[in-house]
Amino acid sequence: MSERLTPELLLRAYGNGVFPMAESAQSDQIFWVDPTRRGIFPLDQFHISRSLRRKIRKQPFRITINQDFTGVLNGCADHEETWINAEIFQLYTELHDMGHAHSLEVWEDQALVGGVYGVVLGGAFFGESMFSRRTDASKIALAYLMARLRYGGFTLFDTQFLTDHLASLGAIEISHAKYHRLLAAALKLRGNFTAQPQPVQPSDVLQDNNHTS
After folding, report:
1. Mean pLDDT of successive 10-residue segments in the chain (213 residues)?
2. Rounded distance, CA 149 to CA 147, Å?
């Protein structure tokens, strides 16, 4: 990149539908990505299986937000293949300090066993990555995240790419043009990631979601 990557530049890029990636954790090269087809999660279409619904009701995990952003970043980067290098790690940490990046953590006792993080701009949430160290931990994280985004007035949950896993949970793929229309509308709003009172109860997660398989 000819221009040094800063948190402010990163936010401008998100506002234009572009996001950064590195080739690997060891690479010092970062490139911009602007997919021709975009993955999004319609906020009213998260698929909760009956078994996952039962598990959420049993509350096997404790859910928090912004308690261990660094831990979530480390969990997401802890893969053989990752696009999170040292510079990206630092940039998202700075965005978190600025209030533009948030994490949702999944705990088993005192152990961080799952989580998801993303960037907030207007009424858009740009999901960056998630991880799971226990069965269904990342699915439960997404269920709680969906409820939080709906409560906070968000209208766009950008997943960047569509994977088979995300598609099975209700994510879809849309055209570049449609994505930018949704993004432009979302940027006019003011979503509030922290608006939902803590702790969130299972009923808060399940009551607005009737998509059960």
Report:
1. 77 94 74 92 93 96 97 88 81 96 97 97 96 96 97 97 93 97 98 95 82 51
2. 6
Give the pLDDT of residue 100.
97
CA distances from 47 to 139, 170, 201 (A): 10, 5, 18
The span from the CA of 112 to the CA of 58, in Å, is: 18
Measure the CA–CA gap between 77 and 83, rounded to whole angstroms. 8
* CA-closest candidate to residue 69, choices 41, 100, 28, 29: 100
Q: What's the pTM value of the predicted model, to 2 decimals? A: 0.93
Cα 213 to the center of its chain, rounded Å: 23
Beta carbons within 8 Å of 58's beta carbon, 6+ residues apart: none
Q: Phi then psi for 160, rounded to 5 degrees? A: 70, -70
- Token pair recorded at residue 113: 């066993």
Three-class SS of residue 194?
Answer: coil
Dihedral angle of Cα 18, 20, 21, 27, to the nearest 10 degrees? 150
- Rounded-to-integer distance, Cα 71 and Cα 91, Å: 15
Query: Structural domains in the chain?
Result: 7-206 (3.40.630.70)
Measured in residues, the chain has a length of: 213
In angstroms, the CA 47 to CA 211 distance is 5
